[in-house]
C-alpha cells in the first residue's frame, strides 16, 4: 500500500512494498522524495520513480475531480428538491387566498358582504355569515360567555400539569417537563391561560418597544410551526427567557407541526405571563383563524380536546388577533414576520386597530353598511405579515403566495433610511441553513423550525443580538437525521418531495391527459420530451425544472420519445366512498375532491360553527357549491348529493368531514400488490 | 487565447448536432448560479456550473476554459459563451461510463495488491496532498459511512457513490 502522512508503526510493513511513493512532512529519509506540486522530480535513476509518481498524482487528481463533481451535483439535487417543496407550499397558499378573496376586489369598495357570486341574498348565505365580524363589545361579551372555563372540572384522574394563576417560573418548568413526556394540558388550564394572555396582549401597542439597556442582548427566534422539539432545543441552548435574557418570537408558531398547542401554550403562558417585559411575540401569517382551518392547527385542537375544542379554537383565534405586528429593538432593528413594501409606513402601523383583522386574509367588515373598508390600512397588515424579499429592485405583488409583496433592495434601503433602522429581521421563508442575509446585509431571514419539509431537510436557527445590534447566529437540527451521510439524508428528503409532487400530478390527471393529447393528435401514446415539459408546466404551474425531474416522473420509449401515460403510474387516488353504498365514485370526481382537498377542508371548517367536526348535509352541499364557484372546478349537484349521502353513515343528517377527507388518499400503486386482497381502503401512500 | 471565429463556428455546429437534452442540462446548471437573472454568472462560479452540468474537471482545466468563457476578461460569463465552453468540454471529455472506468483504475494505482480495499487514512493523505488537494473535511464527507471497523474502504463503493450522480 502507499503511504500517507501517518507515521504509525503499523504502516511500516506496508511501506516496504512501496518505497517510492512516500509522502512525508519531515525531511529525514535518504530516499525520501518530496512531492507537493504536480511537477515530478528529475534525476537520473528517478525516471521510473518519476513516472510512478506522476501516475499517483494523476490518479489522485482524477479522484479529486470526481469528488468535486459529486459535491456540485449534490448541491444541484438539493436545490431541485427545495424548489419542489417550496413551490407546492406556496401554490397551496395562493389558492387559499384566492378562495377567500374572490369577492373582495378593491374596485368594489361598496361591497360589504363577502359572498360568492350569484348565491342569492347574502343574509341567507351561511358561508358569508361565518366570515362577517361583529362589533368589539358584542364580541367580547360573546367570547367570554362562549369560552368560559368556569364550568370545566379537572378530573381526579388527570395526570397532567396543574396551573395556578398568577404563573411562576416553576410552572414553566412543569409545563416543559410535562410536554416533553407527551402529556397534555387540561382544557380548563389552557382556556384560563389564553384568557390571561389575551388580556395582557390587549394592553400592548401594535409595535413592541424592546430595549437591550438592561440585558445587553436579545434573542430573536423565527418560525416554529408547532415544532416543540425545536423550541426546547432553543431553551436548552440559550436558556429560558428572563429580564437578562429577553426573546422576540417572530410569528408562525402554530400550524403544520404536531405540537402547535403545546408550543403556543408555552410561549403565551410562560413567557408572556411570567416575564412580561422579557418576551415579545409577533403575529405571523399563521396566527390567523382562516389559515388554521387549513394548515392543521384546528385539526390538532379538535383531535386533542374533543368537546371543549370549540371554546379553545375561538379563544385562540381572538387572542391571535391581539398579537402585535412587529418589535422595535433599540430603535435600530425592526423585527416583523413577513417583511415590508413600498406602502408600509410605521406611523400608520402604530395607529391602526389590529384587532379588527381576525384574519389578515380578509379586510374587516362591519355591520354598518356605510362604513368603507380601509384598504390602505389592511395593506399595512397584509404586507407586514406576507411579504418576501427579492433580489430584483422594485415592489411587486407576491403572486407566488397570493398576498403581500415582493420587495427589492431599493425598497428596503428607503424604508430603513426613512425610519432610521439599520436592519430588518424577518422570517416567513424556510431556508436550508435556518438563516440567510440578503439585500446586502440589510435583511436577515430567520427560520427556526428544523426538518420543516422532511426529516433532514433543513436546519433551524436563532440569532442573539448584542447591545450594538450585532448578530450571533446559532444553528441546530432537532433529529437523528444529521448523523446520516449527506447523500443518504438527501435521498430521504428528495423522496418526500417527489412523493408530494407525484400526488399533485395524479390529482390533475384529467387535465394533464388532455394537455398531453393535444400534442399527440395521432394517438401514438408518445410525445416529445419538450412537449411533455410544456404540458406539465402549463397545467401545474409550479415553475419546476421538469426536464431534470423527468426520470422520477415518467418513462421514455426506446426512440427517446416520452410515454406520457406513464406519468400516472406510480401512485393513484383511492377512495372508500361509495363502497358501502355499492357504487363506484367516478374517477374524475375523486380527482376533483382530492385536488381540492385543502380548499374543501378550509371551507368545511369555516362552515363548522361549533367546531364539532361535523356539518349538515345542506352545509356540505353548499361547501361544494362555494368551491365550484370560487375555483371554477366542476362538481355536479347530483355527484355531490351522492357523495354526501354515502358519507352520512349513520343517516342522522350529519357528516363527519374528517372522515370524509380521510376517505380520499394517495396510495402507492407499486405497493398495491402487497396490500393484499380483501382489505378495503388499503394503506396510504 | 480568445476563441477564433472558426472554433466558434465548429463549436456551434457541434452544439447543433447535440441532442437538445444536454443543452437543457447546461442551461439549467447555469441558471441556478445566475441568481440575479442577468444572463451571466461570475467567472469564479464557472467550475461549479460546469460540474453541476455533470462535467468532471480539474481546477486547471476549468482555468483553461475560463479564458474562453470570459474573452473580454469582464469577470462574468454570459450564457452563450458558457454553452460554447460546455460543448467543447463535452467534445474533449470522456463519456460518464469511460470516466467511471478511469476512476476505478485510479484507485487501482494505489491498491498495488489489488485487494479491493484501501486504508481510509492513506486515502485521506493522498487526496489532501497530491494533485489538487481537497480539504480534510471534504474527504471525511466523501468517505462517511464507507469506512469499516478496521479503517478500510472498499473503493468500489466509493466509485459507485461518486459516479452515481
Automatic annotation (TrEMBL), chain A:
Coiled coil residues, start to end: none
Domain of life: Eukaryota
Bias type Low complexity, positions: 100-116
Stretches for region Disordered: 1-47, 100-125
Entry GO MF terms: calcium ion binding; iron ion binding; manganese ion binding; protein serine/threonine phosphatase activity
Record carries keyword Manganese: yes
Protein name (record): Serine/threonine-protein phosphatase with EF-hands
The species this protein was found in: Macrostomum lignano
UniProtKB/TrEMBL annotation, chain B:
Biased composition (Basic residues): 7-18
GO MF annotation: an example: calcium ion binding
One protein family per Pfam: EF-hand_7
Keyword Transferase: no
Domain of life assignment: Eukaryota
A GO CC annotation given for this chain: myosin II complex
Transmembrane portions of the chain: none
Region (Disordered): 1-24
Sequence ranges assigned to domain EF-hand in this UniProt record: 23-85
Sorted UniProt keywords: Repeat
Annotated protein name in UniProt: EF-hand domain-containing protein
Amino acid at each position: 500500500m502507499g503511504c500517507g502522512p501517518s507515521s504509525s508503526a503499523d504502516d511500516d510493513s506496508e511501506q516496504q512494498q512501496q518505497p517510492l511513493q512516500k509522502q512525508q512532512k519531515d525531511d529525514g529519509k535518504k530516499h525520501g522524495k518530496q512531492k507537493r506540486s504536480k511537477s515530478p522530480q528529475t534525476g537520473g535513476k528517478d525516471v521510473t520513480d518519476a513516472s510512478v509518481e506522476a501516475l499517483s498524482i494523476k490518479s489522485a487528481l482524477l479522484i479529486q475531480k470526481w469528488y468535486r463533481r459529486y459535491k456540485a451535483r449534490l448541491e444541484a439535487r438539493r436545490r431541485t428538491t427545495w424548489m419542489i417543496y417550496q413551490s407546492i407550499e406556496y401554490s397551496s397558499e395562493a389558492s387559499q387566498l384566492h378562495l377567500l378573496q374572490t369577492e373582495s376586489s378593491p374596485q368594489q369598495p361598496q361591497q360589504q358582504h363577502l359572498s360568492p357570486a350569484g348565491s342569492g341574498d347574502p343574509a341567507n348565505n351561511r358561508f358569508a355569515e361565518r366570515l362577517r365580524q361583529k362589533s368589539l363589545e358584542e364580541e367580547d361579551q360573546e367570547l367570554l360567555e362562549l369560552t368560559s372555563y368556569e364550568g370545566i372540572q379537572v378530573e381526579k384522574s388527570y395526570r397532567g400539569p396543574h396551573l395556578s394563576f398568577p404563573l411562576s417560573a416553576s410552572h414553566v418548568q412543569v409545563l416543559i417537563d410535562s410536554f416533553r413526556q407527551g402529556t397534555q394540558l387540561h382544557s380548563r388550564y389552557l382556556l384560563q391561560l389564553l384568557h390571561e394572555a389575551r388580556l395582557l396582549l390587549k394592553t400592548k401597542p401594535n409595535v413592541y418597544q424592546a430595549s437591550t439597556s438592561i440585558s445587553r442582548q436579545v434573542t430573536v427566534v423565527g418560525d416554529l410551526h408547532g415544532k416543540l422539539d425545536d423550541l426546547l432545543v432553543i431553551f436548552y441552548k440559550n436558556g429560558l427567557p428572563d429580564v437578562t435574557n429577553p426573546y422576540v418570537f417572530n410569528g408562525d408558531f402554530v400550524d403544520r407541526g404536531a405540537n402547535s398547542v403545546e408550543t403556543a401554550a408555552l410561549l403565551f403562558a410562560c413567557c408572556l405571563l411570567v416575564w412580561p417585559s422579557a418576551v415579545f411575540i409577533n403575529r405571523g401569517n399563521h396566527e390567523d383563524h382562516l389559515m388554521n382551518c387549513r394548515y392543521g392547527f384546528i385539526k390538532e385542537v379538535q383531535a386533542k380536546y374533543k368537546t371543549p375544542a370549540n371554546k379553545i379554537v375561538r379563544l385562540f383565534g381572538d387572542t391571535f388577533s391581539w398579537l402585535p405586528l412587529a418589535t422595535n429593538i433599540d430603535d435600530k432593528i425592526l423585527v416583523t414576520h413577513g417583511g415590508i413594501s413600498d406602502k408600509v409606513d410605521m406611523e400608520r402601523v402604530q395607529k391602526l386597530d389590529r384587532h379588527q383583522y381576525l384574519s389578515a386574509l380578509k379586510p374587516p367588515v362591519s355591520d354598518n353598511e356605510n362604513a368603507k373598508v380601509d384598504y390602505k390600512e389592511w395593506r399595512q397588515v397584509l404586507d407586514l405579515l406576507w411579504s418576501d424579499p427579492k433580489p430584483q429592485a422594485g415592489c411587486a405583488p407576491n403572486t407566488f403566495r397570493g398576498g403581500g409583496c415582493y420587495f427589492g433592495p431599493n425598497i428596503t434601503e428607503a424604508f430603513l433610511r426613512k425610519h432610521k433602522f439599520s436592519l430588518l429581521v424577518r422570517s416567513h421563508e424556510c431556508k436550508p441553513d435556518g438563516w440567510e442575509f440578503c439585500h446586502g446585509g440589510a435583511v436577515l431571514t430567520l427560520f427556526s423550525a428544523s426538518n420543516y419539509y422532511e426529516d433532514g431537510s433543513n436546519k433551524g436557527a436563532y440569532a442573539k443580538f448584542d447591545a450594538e445590534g450585532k448578530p450571533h447566529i446559532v444553528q441546530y437540527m432537532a433529529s437523528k437525521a444529521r448523523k446520516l451521510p449527506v447523500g443518504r439524508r438527501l435521498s430521504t428528503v428528495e423522496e418526500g418531495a417527489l412523493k408530494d409532487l407525484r400526488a399533485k400530478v395524479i390529482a390533475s390527471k384529467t387535465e394533464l391527459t388532455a394537455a398531453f393529447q393535444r400534442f399527440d393528435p395521432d394517438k401514438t401514446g408518445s410525445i416529445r420530451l419538450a412537449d411533455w415539459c410544456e404540458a406539465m408546466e402549463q397545467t401545474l404551474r409550479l415553475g419546476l425544472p421538469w426536464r431534470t425531474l423527468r426520470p422520477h416522473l415518467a418513462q421514455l420509449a426506446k426512440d427517446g420519445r416520452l410515454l406520457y401515460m406513464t406519468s400516472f403510474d406510480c401512485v393513484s387516488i383511492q377512495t372508500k366512498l361509495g363502497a358501502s353504498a355499492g357504487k363506484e365514485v367516478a374517477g374524475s370526481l375523486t380527482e376533483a375532491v382530492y385536488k381540492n382537498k385543502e380548499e374543501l377542508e378550509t371551507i368545511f371548517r369555516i362552515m363548522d360553527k361549533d367546531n364539532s367536526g361535523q356539518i349538515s348535509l345542506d352545509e356540505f352541499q353548499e361547501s361544494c357549491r362555494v368551491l365550484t364557484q370560487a375555483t371554477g372546478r366542476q362538481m355536479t349537484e347530483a355527484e355531490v348529493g351522492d357523495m354526501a349521502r354515502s358519507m352520512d353513515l349513520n343517516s342522522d343528517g350529519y357528516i363527519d368531514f374528517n372522515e370524509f377527507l380521510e376517505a380520499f388518499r394517495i396510495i402507492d400503486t407499486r405497493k398495491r400488490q402487497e396490500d393484499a386482497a380483501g382489505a378495503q381502503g388499503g394503506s396510504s401512500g | 487565447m480568445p476563441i477564433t471565429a472558426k472554433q466558434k463556428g465548429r463549436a456551434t455546429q457541434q452544439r447543433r448536432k447535440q441532442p437538445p437534452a444536454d443543452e437543457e442540462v447546461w442551461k439549467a446548471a447555469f441558471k441556478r448560479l445566475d441568481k440575479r437573472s442577468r444572463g451571466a454568472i461570475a467567472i469564479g462560479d464557472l467550475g461549479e456550473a460546469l460540474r453541476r452540468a455533470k462535467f468532471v474537471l480539474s481546477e486547471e482545466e476549468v482555468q483553461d476554459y475560463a479564458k474562453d468563457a470570459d474573452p473580454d476578461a469582464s469577470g462574468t460569463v454570459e450564457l452563450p459563451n458558457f454553452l460554447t465552453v460546455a460543448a467543447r468540454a463535452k467534445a474533449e471529455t470522456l463519456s460518464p461510463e469511460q470516466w467511471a472506468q478511469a476512476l476505478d483504475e485510479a484507485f487501482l494505482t494505489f491498491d498495488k495488491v489489488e485487494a479491493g480495499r484501501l486504508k481510509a487514512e492513506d486515502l485521506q493523505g493522498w487526496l489532501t496532498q497530491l494533485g489538487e488537494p481537497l480539504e480534510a473535511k471534504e474527504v471525511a464527507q466523501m468517505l462517511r459511512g464507507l469506512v469499516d471497523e478496521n479503517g478500510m474502504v472498499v473503493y468500489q463503493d466509493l466509485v459507485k457513490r461518486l459516479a452515481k450522480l
